[in-house]
Write a structure and sequence with these properties.
The protein has 206 residues and is mainly alpha-helical. The protein has helices spanning 2-16, 20-30, 33-42, 48-68, 73-103, 108-114, 134-149, 154-170, 176-197. The chain has nine helices and no strands.
Length: 206
Amino acid sequence: MLIWAGIMLIALGGGAFAVDRKAVHFFYDRVGGRLQRFLSRTTHLAKAAHWLAFACLAWAMSAAWLTWEHETALVRLVFDAASAFILALGAGSATLHLVKFFLCRRRPRDELEMGQYGFVPLGFDLSKNSFPSGHSLTIMIVATMASALWPCGAPLWFALALWLSLTRALLNAHFLSDVFVGAGVGVIAARVIVVNFFPYLAQSWF
């Protein structure tokens, strides 16, 4: 199911190319004041560095416990979940940054400030790194791992992840297509890692 969800998100991102420029101006004209401040405070909950630091800390602590103390089911679960997250984030981020590096998409601010829009294929310009969204990828991996650990909350985890992803477009940090494609890559990366390397964590609907 998650493979198809990821494919659908990527397809949605492909369709969003048709409205990307209009959406940027729409959000710029209508998102302001309190909503903008709220979005600015919450959007970085999807930042990779925070989640990676937390996962690495959990991995190191659980690894030390497994090395020096008696193994317990909870500690093994923490170790495997942290390992799965780190691997999924690594695989997804490698894919994402290769695409960014080769396609070189301008950020929405270039459209708003200079009227410059689009890709510069094979430009190898690290400043043109809009497509896809790393925040979207990260938070969808978080939602997938949360669904593996607490499956009853899966609709909530993915709804929150989708909202945090969309904050990137609402703040004009990314285009809509960046957000959906990044989210799709994140879901697929997490699903592939969990199902193939940590199958006992995978839910039947994964």
